[in-house]
Write a structure and sequence with these properties.
Blueprint lengths: L2 H5 E3 L6 E6 L6 E6 L3 H20 L1 H18 L1 H12 L3 H26 L2 E3 L8 E9 L2 E5 L7 H12 L3 E5 L5 H14 L6 E3 L4 H8 L5 E5 L2 H12 L5 E4 L4 E5 L5 H13 L9 E7 H16 L17 H16 L3 E4 L5 E2 L2 E2 L2 E4 L6 H4 L6 E7 L2 H8 L4 E2 L1 E5 L4 H6 L5 E4 L16 E2 L2 E2 L4 H6 L2 E9 L16 H13 L2
Parallel strand pairs: 6-7, 6-9, 7-8, 9-10, 11-12, 11-19, 12-17, 16-17, 19-20
Antiparallel strand pairs: 1-2, 2-3, 4-5, 5-23, 10-22, 13-16, 14-15, 18-21
This protein binds NADPH dihydro-nicotinamide-adenine-dinucleotide phosphate (NDP).
Protein name: Aldehyde dehydrogenase
Pfam family, one: Aldedh
GO molecular function, one term: oxidoreductase activity, acting on the aldehyde or oxo group of donors, NAD or NADP as acceptor
Length: 501
């Protein structure tokens, strides 16, 4: 069921199609938003062009002052922001608070670091070009389109928006149809501190509005969402050679080695798998536990997961499943795992009670079951026993997904982390990398490519601009027809001496 069918309402007075965002806990309408047409999206990108010139001219210091002011405004209005996130996603108050804390931290980091990471700097010109000075800077692309998902409606798109803005770009943001109000809130608060030009605009609507943004002539498109939609976005952007950043789903493994702190690993597995109702791209979905500690680990996970309760009240452990059709996917994965010989040690099929899903922990699930190979995106964990941590690494690396991972080991944590094919690994914790603004975030394989966050995340929204300046002439200059007859021979001799040994 899409919201087009469920909740759109037409406004005959101004011909503007509108749709409603709903509270998944109650089905109540949170707000109405325009369905932006292709023409409106093109117009937004056109407006963004002049805004981009204004924003780029502010320079690093000017932009930092505005971004810092925006951050302070977001902090002042945190309670309002949080209740909007809760209303549109259904997530618990604490899950929303954690999300918004991270938004603010990243915004601060990107604004502060942009000048150092992107500003013009000298680089070594090398022995052969010693008579030239060489400099490099990273310039804004212009207008960046951002398409975001609903599960972290502020944190996830802000991984692109904050970094693209800090790098000097204007942004046109298409939020998920489930969380348009959060997008409007971001753009509205930004406009309070940057009233001169529409540097950050929001275009609300459904998938077609996102598709229109891909074709609207933006200078880069940053997409976060599912892998199938990521492929469609790439195909649309390919038509105009628009570069893309694609942050897609994951099926993140957690490895519990023989020498792990088993209690800490169990706590982390349950939180990493269940918080935000398991609707986390880099959340824990599968656990590989070494046989030596498996019984103890499974007993602890069982105890902790059984104590958790989903609900609509603010202090619930986690909220409902935000997107109604995801409930069917979760149910199908649990049913398939049980039919194929897996066992539920917590919950089972009866745990799926839309819009809520209670914790489910499955053990001994065949490795080719959907619950192991596909993104479940619910408060479920698959825990499979392995002979040792080395087998765990092999299984962890067996999927096409490669977003994040976690390793619990007292002595081999970093060694095991180094063998995992994925973008980020947390050792003796889960998801810590997402909270370190200096670290890049992104995946490999079906989890996408490109990076948000960190220095890479700033550079992602720029192009490199390189300049050489000749400081003085030299006798050995091969790059002119005025060179002497022996110049090239001398240069080659030099190369042999310098680099041939
Ligand atoms: P979707 O892929 O369904 O949608 C993502 C965004 O794309 C939405 O704004 C959606 O609009 C839009 N969209 C849909 N169709 C098109 C199209 N043809 N062209 C352009 N845009 C389109 O993902 P979800 O919103 O369901 O988000 C959940 C997914 O996001 C999960 O797979 C999760 O793992 C992933 N994710 C990845 C993260 C990462 O950093 N790697 C972080 C967070 C989530 P509409 O909503 O209106 O359909």
């Amino acid at each position: 069921m899409t919201r087009t069918a469920a909740a759109s309402t037409a406004r005959p007075d101004d011909e503007q199609q509108r749709f409603a965002s709903l509270d998944p806990r109650t089905g109540e309408v949170v707000g109405h938003h325009p369905v932006r047409t292709e023409a409106e999206v093109v117009e937004a990108v056109r407006r963004a062009r002049s805004a981009a010139a204004f924003w780029a001219e502010l320079g690093f210091d000017g932009r930092r002052a505005r971004l810092d002011a925006w951050r302070r405004l977001l902090v002042r209005r945190l309670a309002e922001f949080q209740s909007l996130v809760c209303a549109e996603t259904g997530k618990s108050a604490d899950d929303a608070r954690i999300e918004l804390g991270l938004v603010v931290d990243h915004l601060r980091w990107a604004a502060k670091q942009a000048a150092k990471v992107l500003g013009r700097r000298k680089v070594a010109s090398g022995l052969l070009m010693h008579n030239h000075a060489a400099t490099l800077e990273y310039r804004p692309l212009g207008v960046v389109g951002v398409i975001g998902p609903w599960n972290y409606p502020a944190f996830t798109p802000m991984g692109s928006i904050a970094y693209a803005l800090a790098a000097g770009n204007a942004v046109v943001f298409k939020p998920s149809e489930h969380t348009p109000g959060v997008g409007e809130f971001l753009a509205g608060t930004f406009a309070e501190v940057v009233p001169e030009f529409p540097v950050l605009q929001v275009v609300t609507g459904f998938g077609e509005t996102g598709a229109a943004l891909c074709r609207a002539g933006v200078d880069k498109l940053a997409f976060t969402g599912s892998t199938p939609t990521g492929k469609r976005v790439m195909a649309a952007c390919a038509e105009s050679l628009t570069p893309v950043l694609v942050e897609c789903g994951g099926k993140d493994p957690l490895i519990v080695a023989e020498d792990a702190d088993v209690r800490a690993a169990a706590e982390a597995a349950v939180w990493g798998g269940m918080f935000n109702s398991g609707q986390t791209c880099a959340g824990v979905e599968r656990v590989y536990v070494a046989e030596a500690v498996a019984d103890e680990f499974i007993a602890l996970v069982t105890e902790k997961a059984r104590a958790l309760r989903p609900g609509g009240e603010p202090d619930a452990d986690f909220g409902p499943i935000t997107m109604p059709r995801q409930v069917e996917v979760i149910g199908a994965h649990v049913a398939d795992a049980l039919e194929r010989g897996g066992r539920a040690v917590v919950g089972g099929l009866e745990s799926v009670r839309p819009p809520y899903v209670e914790p489910v922990v499955l053990v001994d699930v065949p490795e080719d079951a959907a619950a192991v190979t596909e993104e479940t995106f619910g408060p479920t964990l698959v825990v499979n026993r392995v002979a040792d941590a080395d087998e765990a690494v092999r299984r962890a690396n067996a999927l096409r997904y490669g977003l994040g991972a976690a390793v619990f080991s007292r002595h081999r944590g970093e060694e095991l982390a180094g063998r995992l094919r994925c973008g980020m690994v947390a050792v003796n914790s889960v998801l810590a990398f997402a909270s370190v603004p200096a670290l890049p975030f992104g995946g490999v394989g079906d989890s996408g490519f490109g990076r948000i966050h960190g220095e890479d995340g700033l550079r992602e929204f720029t192009y490199a601009h390189a300049v050489t300046r000749k400081r003085f002439g030299t006798l050995l200059d091969p790059m002119t027809y005025d060179r002497g007859p022996r110049t090239v021979r001398h240069v080659l001799r030099l190369i042999r001496v310098l680099y041939g040994r």
